[in-house]
């Protein structure tokens, strides 16, 4: 019934996220995708941030040494699949340089190169010990389908016009989601709008061929990104797939299995996770992961993009929907506040990490979350810092940028560095630093808006190549990579909350490896003033030597086990204990609490255990149906407060469930809590 707190292979990875078209141009002959003419013919315009600028797969391959020198162990590239090149109506057309408007899911887009170029990239990365993650899409395709009623129609709710089967009988698609008896559909009678194709030839524009069947799409009109239409509506006219249909989930399983077969990639970042029904993800994630593991990829890893700062929702994807990980948008929001806004209390980070238990189950937890401080949608951290601190000095902007990345690398999760941050890219001068404004090219730009950018930490401009390994941000990220590589506990050790100021100031936590039991104390100060604080630790009279920044500073804990640290303004420090934490002499006791006082439980129920003492421990939680013998592991938590959330809705109403907890200390002693029995009820 007891088990360790999980760590996956991804906790050893440092991921470099790049937009292929904006990274490096290794083959100018493919800039136009092999199609002559102008931007509206081939999508290429190096003077426009809305069109292809020329980066490609050969360019990425040529810069692998640069990425590895930065300390990155993996790359995540934007979708390499064949796209619908031009989108929108005059004069507001834009090109699919980002790769998210796919039409041919089984082909490489010629703007980024050839199949051989892609194989060469993956092979070269693997030869260097690096992993390659593809960005993929399953929510929508490029805009090929329109309606007989006209383009860009408003969304029609299912309550007003339900789906109808081919015989005209209404039905609720959710009753048949991923079921083999999903009703047959007819494009003339089944949908609120009548789907058709935009122009001759579009009826065969997509591949595999099943994607050309218009009944494989929701056909309900445009989304407003709220409620039901967030799952069923078209994104700005993009064709929204009918992911409740089993043919769609199975079709995408086959599509993305083939990319594994053909290129030997190491994982997927999955776009628009929150806009697809959970039944699809359950079938898709099982179908891909089981296949990868059975075909020589035991560490294959997939993480989803759900752009919401809500741990309860985010955790549903890693528990109910079988994702291994999601991008931690809650972390990104709090990281901006901490590093960029000096009025933000340090305690906001403590509150963020206090919600980590939502993610704990039998095969995943918060340590697997992919963390980031900026990306291609939300904008660059440099832009955020300038927006939050108008008139700030160059030194302050650089220091805040460094502080954001120090939090990214030293706290739990798997850090994702967005390309260009290491060169101080900042989207200067843009009223809105998101989306296209945050997608500058690393190679010399011809885009007028990018040429106005003022980079942080350098006098370089966007008019030149920016591959400077001497840039202060490059060196800072490199040092952070080196220190986490040298001290594995900073990558995958337990994170124990230690100190958090209720105003701008010090946030401190320990990282400790489950086996080595060496404690590290991480102290970050987001104040513009130096701060001195006493930080609790596991040990009294313990010498702690600073390992970041490098130096010979050694401090010693007091009799009450506190370590007094002075944190310079806008800085981070890491101290390492001289010897392991003392082994426990006897197991602490555990008692389950925080279950309803009455007999009933409902929904995602928190199960919490109190543990005596303040030593290192792991608590495993288990459940069984009363009257049965075998226990099922819910999950294991290795930092206080010890708890998990269990979804009791998997059991019929009236089921009597029994819960227990097993605590294991750092010497291997175990002790089991009393069993608590509760009945599954409807929510109040």
From TrEMBL:
Gene3D superfamilies: Glycosidases (3.20.20.80), Golgi alpha-mannosidase II (2.60.40.1180), Immunoglobulins (2.60.40.10). One of its GO terms (biological process) is carbohydrate metabolic process. Residues 17-484 form the Glycosyl hydrolase family 13 catalytic domain. It comes from the Bacteria. Residues 22-45 are annotated as: Disordered. Transmembrane segments: none annotated. CDD domains: AmyAc_bac_CMD_like_2. GO terms for molecular function: alpha-amylase activity; calcium ion binding. This is Glycosyl hydrolase family 13 catalytic domain-containing protein. It comes from Cellulomonas uda.
